[in-house]
Amino acid sequence: MSMLPSSSSGIYLSKTNQNDNFDGETFHKFFDCWLAEQKQLLKELLDAEESKTHDDHHHLTDEQVQALIAKVVEHYECYCKAKSKCAKQDVLAMLSPTWRSSLEEAFLWIGGWRPSMAFQLLYSKCGLQFEAKLDELTQGLRTCDLGDLSAEQLGQVDEMQRRTIREEREITDMLARHQETVADASMVELSHHVVGEMMMMLDDEEKTRGEEGKKKKELEDKVESTLAPKEEGLEEILLKADDLRLRTLQGIVGILTPKQAIHFLTAAAELHIMIHEWGKKKDASRTCNQDSIK
Question: Where is the composition biased (Basic and acidic residues) (predicted)?
Fold first, then answer.
């Protein structure tokens, strides 16, 4: 099994640390690199699943399995670090990512996957594997996959799910309160002032032509200073959401045995890659149909 000696997305991220221009376009390139790595990691996860099912010369040691799990989790951590860096420069790009398909965007929660979805994924995979090996389980045999979760593990997952949903709701409420500030007194006053200035410039175009550049600059400065705290608030909320996403992933992996974690991380990667690829195909098909109509 290949164990990639270095992370190209990690190298790409370290290079961007040399400058402050880590914008949406830069992150898009990082994401393409990161996604290619995820596909490679998925192959390694599938190989690990196979090695645990069949006792052959590809059998992995417990240390190799642990190393693979750590590498996959680190891969997600690298994504969050890059996203955090870009959010400081362009938080709006992170909340409306151009590198995502329309299908993915429809299911986004504050720029990413909803943390509670990880539990739905776990339960779905658990049910499928339980049904697939029901005969073995009823005979008292251990399958060591997600269909073989212990009562203690289920209790830990349930407790963690409750905490995650509470935090998720708190962040959602925080976003709702922040969204309402788009119509606060400062924004209403600014919009009234800006529109008034624009109308005056149109009504007296000849007189104001010489001062047009100066007035536009003043208006832009007022808009930027008023919007700055709005964007800072969005950045704070995005970082909280990403932190919860990462802690949820780490928490679930921590509850599972190494063999079970391999199955969970495989399911997560498969779902992400499938939705991304399906979404891209649907977008391409829609664009093609629109072009044919023209």
Answer: 206-224
| DSSP element (H, E) containing 235 | helix 212-255
Q: Please state, in angstroms and rounded to a whole number, the distance separating the CA atoms of residues 101 and 275.
A: 9
Euclidean distance between CA atoms 79 and 35, whole angstroms: 10
End-to-end alpha-carbon separation of the chain, Å?
Answer: 50
Q: What pTM value is reported for the model?
A: 0.85
- Alpha carbons 193 and 222: distance in angstroms, whole number: 10
Q: Do 4 and 40 meet the contact criterion of CB atoms below 8 Å apart?
A: yes
Structure tokens at 195: 């529109």
DSSP string, 9-56: HHHHHHHHTTSS---HHHHHHHHHHHHHHHHHHHHHHHHHHHHHHS-S
Strand partners, 230: none
Q: pLDDT digits over 229-287, tens only?
A: 999 999 999 999 999 999 999 999 999 999 999 999 999 999 999 999 999 999 998 87
Nearest to 247 by CA among 115, 86, 65: 115
Q: What count of Cα atoms within 13 Å lies in the side-chain half-sphere of residue 291?
A: 6
Cβ-contact 71, 4 below 8 angstroms: yes
CB atoms within 10 A of CB 133: 17
Q: What is the pLDDT of residues 46-72, one digit of tens each?
A: 999 887 555 555 678 889 999 999 999
From the centroid of its chain, how far is CA 212?
43
